[in-house]
Amino acid sequence: MKKSLLVLLATALLALPTMAQTERTDFAPAKSVTFSQVTPFNMTTRTGETINMQNLLSQGKTIIIDLSCCWCGPCWSFHQTGTLEYLHENYGAPGTDEFFIIWGEIEGSNTDAQITGTSTSSNNSGYTQGDWTNGGTVPYAIVDDASLSSRFDLYEGYVPTIFMIFPNGYYRDITSEIRSSTNPATAAAAVYAVKDNYPQAGVAPTVTINGPASAIVGAPATFSADIISVDPITSYDWSFNSGNPATASTATATTSWNTTGTYEIVLAVTNTTGTTYDTTTINVIEWGDTMYYDNGIYASSIGTGGGDIYWGAKFEASTLANRNYLTDVMIYVGEGYSGAYDLQIYQGGNDAPQTLLASQTSNFTTNDEDQWNTIHIYNTVALDPTKTLWVVFHTSSITYPAVGCDYTGNPNGSLVSMDGVEWMTIQQAASTLDYTWMIRAITSNNEPALACAIDGPTYTRTNVPTTYTANGPSTASYSWTIAGGTPATATGSSVTVTWANGGNYSITLTATNNGETATDAIDVEVEQCDAITSLPVSLNLNNGLGCWTAYAVDPSNNDLFGIQAMSDGSVAFVFSSYNDATDYNQYLITPELNVNTNIKLSFDYAILSSYSTSEQFSIRYSTTGNNISDFTNVVDDVNATAHSFTQYEATIPSNAKYIAINYYSEWAYYLGLKNITLSATNAIDDVKANVAIYPNPANDMLNVVAEGVKSIEIIDATGRVV
C-alpha cells in the first residue's frame, strides 16, 4: 500500500513531525502484482566486495533485496524473524543456490555505526534499532547505499520494501509474501512459490484491469490495464456486460450503463504466445442517491504518522435539491489502518464547517484488504437545501487514515485540517500531495426508518466481563436479551456481560423510539477458560495466548503488541510503544487462579531495540477480577536494561486471583517476554510495609515502629534469630 506523510502545511497551521522515509506497517497480500525491469548495476558491500548484478542474473539466480533503514522499527521486527537468513541458508549458496540475498540501507546520512548497532544517537539521522550484522554473523550481503532506491521505479518511498529480481531483469515487490508470517520457514515458502511467476519470452501476458469500482448511471467510465508481456501484444478484447458500447478492442476503453446494478467486465489480452483474461465488476448507481467526488480507484493513504488529522468533503447547497435526509456515509479504509474513525456531519460554512448535526464513532478492522465501509447515521439528519453539507472524519492515533484517489478536479473533495478549525485543500497543505478523498454521502427523500446495531466483540472467554454498546438514536430506549449470560436481560445503551460456560450464544438488542421498534442480533463465541487449580503451568506462545489476555489502555496500541518470532527460532510476547499513543500502559494477564499457594512467576525478558535507555514493567495482582482497575497490588517495579534475554522471578501471594505483567514505559519501544511460567513456591510473602528502625546502626538497643505488621523477626548476619 502506498501512503504519504503529511509534512508541510500553510502558515496558519502548525508544522508536523517529519521522517526521512515513511514506514510501511501493512503486509497483507497484494490484490495485483506489478512488474517492471531494472537495469543491472554493481553494488559494493560494507566490507568492500563487489556485487555484479548482471553476472548473478546471467547465472540464472534470483536476487532478493531488502530496502531498509537502521532507524526503522518495522524493518527491525522483520530482521529479527531470521527470514533472510533462512532464505540464504536454504536457497542461497549453502542450499540450492537459486537466490542471492542483499540487505540494503538506503538512508542518505547513515553511518556504519548504525549498521553495527554502536551508534548512540537518538535522531533519525543517527539512530539505530540494533546490530544489523548480528555480531558480524549474518550470511547475506549488506550494502550501504542511498542510491539503491532510485534504481527501482516501483519503489514508493517506504521501508521496508523488498523486491525480487528475476533472471531476465524483471522485478516485483514481494514485501507482502516475505512478511506474511513471522515463521521463517513459512515466509520463505511464500517467497519461493512466486519465484517462477514473472514475464518471460514464450509466455502469455499478465493482465490487471484498472478502472473505477463504481459509476453513475449514464456517466462515462474509462478502463485500462497493467499488462506485462515480453512477446508483442496482438489484440485487446473488452466485454462490458450491459454496457454502451458492450465491447472494445483498444488498450483503453470507455463505456457507460443506463441502469443501476453490478456488472461484469472482462478483458482478454493476446500476445504471440497466448491469451490471458482478467475480470472485475463495477457498481452503477444513481447520482440522486449518492454524492461524491472520487473515481473509486485507490491511490494513496495520507496521515501525520499518528497525530490529529481531519479530512472531509464539502457539498454545495445547490447539490442538495430534492435531498431531504442524509442516511449513510461511505468511507474507504486502507489496509492495515484499523481503529476508531470519528464521523462528524455539519451544515453551513464555506471555509470551515459551521453547525454540527450528528457525530458518531466507528471502529474498523481492515487486516485483510482495502475496503469500503458504510456507516449508518442513527440520529435523523434532515438536510437544509440552502446550506453547504460537510462530511468530516477525524482520527488522533492512526498513522495513515485518509484514503484518496488521484485528484479528480473538484477542491471540495480534498479538504484537510489539523485542528478541525482551519481548513484547506490537501494540495495547499502539501504541494506534493494531489488527491481526492474517498468519502461518499448517501441521501434519501424519505425519513429513514428506525435502526439499531450492536457494537462489541463476537469472541470472548468465560468469566471475562465483555461490554456491548447500542448504536442507534440518542432518543431511543434499548433493551437487551443475552442467552446464557449474566445478566440475562438489561436496559440502557450498553451492557457488560459474563458467561460462565463456553459455547455459542446470541445477544438481541431492541430499540424503541416514538412507537417504532427495531432489532439487531449477533452471535458470540465464548471460549471455555477454567481457573488454574494446579501448578506449574507455562504459556506456550507457539499456540498463541490461549486463555491469557493482552490489553492496551489506549486501543491504538492493540495492534502493536503480540507474539513475534525471534532470530534464534524462539517466540516471544512483545510489548511495543512504537506509536503516537496517549497511554502506553499494556497488560498481559493470567487466567483466573485458584491454587491456594504462593506462586512464583518467572519469565525471560529483553529490550528488543538498541536504545541505551531502559524499559519499565511492574508485576501486579488482583484478588477480585481482571479489570485493569482491579490490579491495585504491586509486587515489583522493574527498570529493565538487558538487551539479551534475562531471567526474572517474582513471588505472588496465595490470595492472588489474577496476575498481570504491566508494561508502561516508552523509552526503548520494544520489550520481549518468553518462557513464562507459573509454579508453586514455599517462599514467604515479601510485603512492603511502613517500618521505621532506629538507631541504625545499633549497638545494644534497637527500636522498631511498624504499621500493619502482625509479628517481626530480626535475624543477624549469621542467620540467628535475635
Overview of the structural elements:
- With 722 residues, the protein is mainly beta.
- The chain contains seven helices and 54 strands.
- Strands 3-11-10-6-7-8 form a six-stranded mixed beta sheet. It has a six-stranded antiparallel beta sheet with strand order 25-24-27-22-29-30.
- Strand 40 (503-513) and strand 41 (516-527) form a beta hairpin.
- Helix 3 (83-91) crosses helix 6 (184-192).
- It is globular, with a radius of gyration of 30 Å.
- The model is unreliable at 7-32 (pLDDT under 50).
Q: What is the arithmetic mean of pLDDT?
A: 85
What proportion strand?
Answer: 35-45%
Q: Could you tell me the radius of gyration in angstroms?
A: 30 Å
| Strand segment count | 54
**Kindly, what is the distance between the CA atoms of the first and last residues, rounded to a whole number of angstroms?**
71 Å
Percent helix range: under 10%
Shape: globular
How many distinct helices?
7
Structural class: mainly beta
Largest beta-sheet details: 6 strands, mixed
Strand order of the largest sheet: 3-11-10-6-7-8
Looking at this protein, list some descriptive labels.
722 residues, mainly beta, single chain, six-stranded mixed β-sheet, 6% helix, globular, 7 helices
Which helices and strands appear, and what pairs or packs with what?
Layout: E1 3-5, E2 22-23, E3 35-37, E4 42-44, E5 50-52, H1 53-58, E6 62-68, H2 73-81, H3 83-91, E7 99-105, H4 112-116, E8 141-144, E9 158-159, E10 161-165, E11 170-173, H5 175-178, H6 184-192, E12 206-210, E13 214-216, E14 221-228, E15 233-240, E16 247-248, E17 253-255, E18 261-271, E19 275-285, E20 290-292, E21 300-303, E22 309-315, E23 325-333, E24 339-347, E25 355-364, E26 371-382, E27 389-395, E28 402-406, E29 415-417, E30 424-425, H7 426-429, E31 435-437, E32 439-444, E33 453-455, E34 459-461, E35 466-471, E36 477-482, E37 485-486, E38 489-491, E39 494-499, E40 503-513, E41 516-527, E42 537-538, E43 549-552, E44 562-565, E45 571-576, E46 586-589, E47 599-607, E48 615-622, E49 633-640, E50 646-652, E51 658-663, E52 670-680, E53 691-694, E54 703-706
Parallel strand pairs: 1-21, 2-9, 6-7, 7-8, 13-19, 34-41
Antiparallel strand pairs: 3-11, 4-5, 6-10, 10-11, 12-14, 14-17, 15-16, 15-18, 18-19, 20-32, 21-28, 22-27, 22-29, 23-26, 23-32, 24-25, 24-27, 28-31, 29-30, 33-35, 35-39, 36-38, 36-40, 37-39, 40-41, 42-52, 43-46, 44-45, 45-52, 46-51, 47-50, 47-52, 48-49, 48-51, 53-54
Helix pairs in contact: 3-6
